[in-house]
Amino acid sequence: MSKTRILTGITTTGTPHLGNYVGAIRPAVAASRDDNVESYYFMADYHALIKCDDPARIARSRLEIAATWLACGLDPDKVYFYRQSDIPEIPELTWLLTCVTAKGLMNRAHAYKASVDANTAAGEDPDAGITMGLYSYPILMAADILMFNAHKVPVGRDQIQHIEMARDVAARFNHLFGAGRDYFVLPEVVIEESVATLPGLDGRKMSKSYDNTIPLFEGGTKKLKESIARIVTDSRLPGEPKDPDSTALMPIFAAVASHAETVEFRTALLDGLGWGEAKQRLFERLERDIAPMRAKYEELIAQPARIEEILQAGAARARSIAAPFLAELREAVGLRSFVVPVQKIHPDSVPPGEFGSHAAFGMPAGAVAVVEKSSGGFGTPAIAADKKSARPQFKQYREADGKFYFKLLDADGRLLLQSDGYASPKDAGQSIASLRAAASLNGAGGVYVLGPGIVAADVEQALAALAQ
Ligand code: TRP
Question: The domain 217-298 is classified under which CATH number: 2.60.120.260, 2.160.20.10, 1.10.240.10, 1.10.260.40?
Answer without folding.
Answer: 1.10.240.10
